[in-house]
Amino acid sequence: MPSVLPDGDPAPADGLLPASCAHDAEGRTMSFYVHIPFCTVRCGYCDFNTYTATELGSGSSQATYAATVSKEISFAREVMDRSGQPPREIETVFFGGGTPTLLPASDLVLVLDQIRKDFGLKPGAEITTEANPDSVTRQSLQELADGGFTRVSFGMQSAVPHVLKVLERTHDPKRVPQVVSWAREAGLDVSVDLIYGTPGESLEDWRTSIEAALSYEPDHISAYALIIEDGTKLAAQIRRDEVPNIDDDDHAEKYQMADELFAAAGFSWYEVSNWAKTPANACQHNIAYWKGGDWWGAGPGAHSHVGGLRWWNVKHPAAYQQRIDAGISPGHGREYPDAQAVQLERTMLLTRLSSGMEISELDATGRTKVAGLIADELIDAKAAFAGTLVLTQRGRLLADLVVRELLDF
């Protein structure tokens, strides 16, 4: 089942933000995340807040979802105005899920139009939707492009049928180059997502997936290590010894293979799990997250962040729709992370970027650790001498260890 919401203080029914959230707001980027919680099937490894038709029950509907989430967008505009937030055009929008493209393209465009109407889009704004290869057509991709979308991220995951079977992905891998071609025809930038470390995936299987992805000539590639989440079907299968467990050494070897093959094909890493053909092809929406920008998350279970305040919506689509229809905030809980939590998160995120973290942001104890991390070949010596902490390839494999060393915990 979908993941459990975090603890926190109750979110107010009017959704108003503390006055402190408006401090220095003009200097922060503003983005929108739109959660589409629908999937045709639940993949065995998935712990996201998503629902199949049989899990939805009564009180929510895919057919009315675009209208419902559009109401939250208008509610967000009212909350921002009443909370003293200065007007800011939206710089990035990301439709995630779930499978956003299970909704008609016209519904996704309707939601984007609501953001444009209530907030405005900055010229050149990046507008992305995730998509499964079997959830789009040539016509739907063209409709998305005509409606203002600029980018599509396809959940390829693997090019090897037996790996896709373990992951319970439903698409035919032969369809991926076709949908990439359609997206290109429509004028959309293309990203493909890969997963490595699936039980039963050999190194040659992984090489096959990498080479296939590169042959499609995308603008951007994400490659994520498979994580086994408690409560998922795959976790239960591993516990029953039906499939082998994942292996850290296998993950490391596959990461190194991917990084080297991507680099040879002209891709540069800009975040531990992300590579782009050019800096302009990097996902600006995710960069806004990693650099501490503001965003409003619309939809059930979506998380938001404005001026240091974090909040999250009720999880189930039926509860979400009930609150929206009643004209009250769908927020379930919220929190202000303390200074230590903020520093931990900032260090974790910035050190994952190729642009790195300024060493001057570390406290005295953290700065004393830099020399040892250089000696251990975990951070780049040249960048460190210039005042920036940038991970080496080995450091990317041990990013959590680097953070623990820097923060001494």
Can you describe what's shown?
InterPro entries: Aldolase_TIM, Coproporphyrinogen-III_oxidase, Elp3/MiaA/NifB-like_rSAM, HemW-like, rSAM, rSAM_sf. Belongs to the anaerobic coproporphyrinogen-III oxidase family. HemW subfamily. Keywords: 4Fe-4S, Chaperone, Cytoplasm, Heme, Iron, Iron-sulfur, Metal-binding, S-adenosyl-L-methionine. Helix 3 links the parallel strand 3 and strand 4 (121-131). A nine-stranded mixed beta sheet has the order 8-9-7-6-5-4-3-2-10, with helices on both faces. The protein folds into two domains: 9-290, tm_1862 like domain (pyruvate-formate lyase- activating enzyme, Alpha-Beta Horseshoe); 338-409, no CATH class. The two termini are 32 Å apart. It has 409 residues and is α/β, with parallel strands linked by helices. It has helices at residues 53-56, 62-82, 105-118, 138-146, 161-167, 176-186, 203-215, 233-239, 248-264, 284-290, 317-325, 339-350, 364-368, 370-375, 381-385, 393-397, 399-407, and strands spanning 9-10, 30-36, 90-97, 121-131, 151-157, 189-196, 220-225, 268-271, 274-276, 294-298, 303-306, 309-313, 331-335, 357-358, 388-389.
Number of domains: 2
CATH architecture label of the largest domain: Alpha-Beta Horseshoe
Q: Helix amount, in percent?
A: 25-40%
- Class by alpha and beta content: alpha/beta
Number of strands: 15
Strand order, main sheet: write it out.
Answer: 8-9-7-6-5-4-3-2-10
- Give the C-alpha Rg: 21 Å
Distance between the termini: 32 Å
Question: What is the count of helical runs?
Answer: 17
Q: How does the major sheet shape up? A: 9 strands, mixed
How much of the residues is beta strand, in percent? 15-25%
CATH topology of the largest domain: pyruvate-formate lyase- activating enzyme
- The CATH class designation of the largest domain is Alpha Beta
Relevant CATH superfamily of the largest domain: tm_1862 like domain
**Uncertain segments of ≥5 residues (pLDDT<50)?**
none
Shape, principal axes of CA atoms: globular
Average predicted local confidence, pLDDT: 93
